[in-house]
Amino acid sequence: MEILWFGVLALLLIGYFALEGFDLGVGLLLPVTADRDRAIGAIGPFVLANEVWLIAVAGVLFGAFPACEHALSANYTAVVLLLVSWVVRDMGLWFRRRLFARAFWEWVIALGSLGVCLAWGLFLAGLAGFSFPFGLLYGLLIAALFVLHGRRFLDWRLTGGGSPLVTGALAAVPALVPLVGFAGAVVGNAAPSATLTVMTFMVLPFVPVMAGAQIWVWRAFGKGPVPTYF
Amino acid sequence: MDVLDLARLQFAVTGSLHFLFVVLTLGLAPLVAIMHTRYARTGSTLDERTTRFWGQIYVTNYALGIVTGIVMEFQFGLSWSGLTHYAGDVFGAPLALETLIAFFLESTFLGLWIFGWHRLPKWLHVATIWLVTITAYASAFWIMVANSFLQHPAGAVRDGDVLRLDDFGALLTNPSLSMALPHVLSAGLTVGGFVVMGASAYHLFRRTPDQELFSRSMRMGIWTSFAGTMMVVGFGFAQFGPVTSVQPDKFVDRPAAAFGLGMMILLGHLLQLVALVLVIVVKWAPRWRFLHPLIVLVTPLPFVAAILGWIAREEGRQPWMIWERLKVADAITPGLTGGQIILSFAGFVGVLTLLTVANYVLIVRIIRRGPHEIALGENPAAPAPALTF
């Protein structure tokens, strides 16, 4: 049961990096993107469905591996940076067409995306006890992979280029490394089987709905005119 | 203020900001779903404009609900790891279930609804807003399960120095939950109803072009706030029995809790009276212009009552994090420094407060501009002027 829930945690975190990776990558690319309306329009319908994978990661961490939660407070600054950057990136998207100047919110989106990438670098490196400069470097590596992934996604979505599957897999590598490294420690800190059994029993019937909803997003918004809401 | 005070204040402020948006989400979601269903059936322009106008307000409000919610969730790990250490095996389960089987779906379906205009088949598109509504209510359910556990740790047993899950069913039939959940949901309907009739009253008073649309919306708002206030007061009083059976001195010697409770009850009755009077004259209310400024004036009150309700519930729990099991002071993350909490306080409270103000400016602007400039559901194929909303 612990292994199963670790698998769920790993899948959600990898999914977050592979999916939200292109949203953040497009955000990072905004300052050098000519047609920002179309770039943001391309990621628009995916953002809500992508970022929620990280909220699910946090949920699984609290529910199935509560003893691992100290990883958050042990890397306090990185987590605060992650949350604040995530929040302002999101609000940049919601406000861009509606308040003040668009260019202001586009910078907010770009800086927010950068903040999220750096925070991930600091957080994951911090978990392994690496120093601050190493964490920043790891964050820049994550940002670089996300930029690659974001470009590929825009190519695929806007100009009919090849699918972003490979770059998505690459974008997930920075999450995969610590997952492999900490697998034993995380599994050893799982909640008792009574808790895990109840959660399994409750979540299982919804797995097809969750998968179906995600697939629906890709089928509905993977092609066709680019929406303009964000 | 010391570290503990700041951590508490941070949670209280982010929680209150979160609930301001959540309570309107809970109330507006079913109303927008009903409007959209009506539009799908009739196909009329009036129904389309109604759905898109209120839908735009709903979505704008929702955005801040998400980002404040993110900060809430992670704060448990940042500031309150003592809670997770002591009760994570029990308390974590409803939170995990909320994220997986409620919010994950809610967010995904909301994306489908926002961007699905002119793209999804008509009835499937309507289905997404109903799914958003259902999952929003499911989300409220699981969060209330988690909160009720703090009020009364049902279903858990002590095992050494921690709590273990013993009876999951007892978590779901917690006396602190049974009447509180419908109380919260009907508070949502009250807020939704008052906002809809308040915004309608503004347009009717100003004699803007969409008189028919806002007359209908006002009647819907009046009926909703009537049903909402009746239920919120009913379930509110019905809570006293079960709550005091497990927290007998919740409102005794806890001035902040007693104050919150008293003011909330006062406002609840006032709003109930307003809704009752309006429902009697519902047929004429859209035409009685003298009423409209009064309706606009009372619109903020249900929000105030909702926050007062949470102050009553949570202050009435002090000094316990988990009633008679774990003190708030012992739930704080060990070794949390002043520098850390000041950093996160500035980051979360500062940024979220600014964004809250910006979002309300935006919502008021959407309401004032009315249904002719709505970005939600605009047809990309139609040659339209550059729309702002």
TrEMBL record, chain A:
Major subcellular site: membrane
Compartment list: Cell membrane
Protein topology in the membrane: Multi-pass membrane protein
Transmembrane spans: 6-30, 42-64, 76-95, 107-130, 136-154, 166-188, 194-218
GO MF entries: electron transfer activity; metal ion binding; oxidoreductase activity, acting on diphenols and related substances as donors, oxygen as acceptor
Alphabetical keyword list: Cell membrane, Electron transport, Heme, Iron, Membrane, Metal-binding, Transmembrane, Transmembrane helix, Transport
One of the record's GO cellular component terms: plasma membrane
Coiled-coil ranges from the UniProt annotation: none
Superkingdom, taxonomy of origin: Bacteria
InterPro entries the record matches: Cyt-d_oxidase_su2
Any Pfam family matching the protein: Cyt_bd_oxida_II
One of the protein's GO biological processes: aerobic electron transport chain
Family label: Belongs to the cytochrome ubiquinol oxidase subunit 2 family.
Name used for this protein in its record: Cytochrome d ubiquinol oxidase subunit II
Naturally occurring in which organism (per UniProt): Herbidospora galbida
Source species taxonomy: Bacteria, Bacillati, Actinomycetota, Actinomycetes, Streptosporangiales
UniProtKB/TrEMBL annotation, chain B:
Membrane topology: Multi-pass membrane protein
Pfam families xref list: Cyt_bd_oxida_I
GO biological process entries: aerobic electron transport chain
Localisation per UniProt entry: Cell membrane
Spans through the membrane: 12-36, 57-78, 90-116, 123-145, 184-205, 217-238, 258-282, 294-312, 341-362
Single GO MF annotation: metal ion binding
InterPro entries recorded: Cyt-d_ubiquinol_oxidase_su_1 (IPR002585)
Keyword entries, A-Z: Cell membrane, Electron transport, Heme, Iron, Membrane, Metal-binding, Transmembrane, Transmembrane helix, Transport
Principal location class: membrane
Highest taxon, organism lineage: Bacteria
Signal peptide span: none
GO cellular component, one term: cytochrome complex
Similarity comment: family membership: Belongs to the cytochrome ubiquinol oxidase subunit 1 family.
Name by which UniProt lists this protein: Cytochrome ubiquinol oxidase subunit I
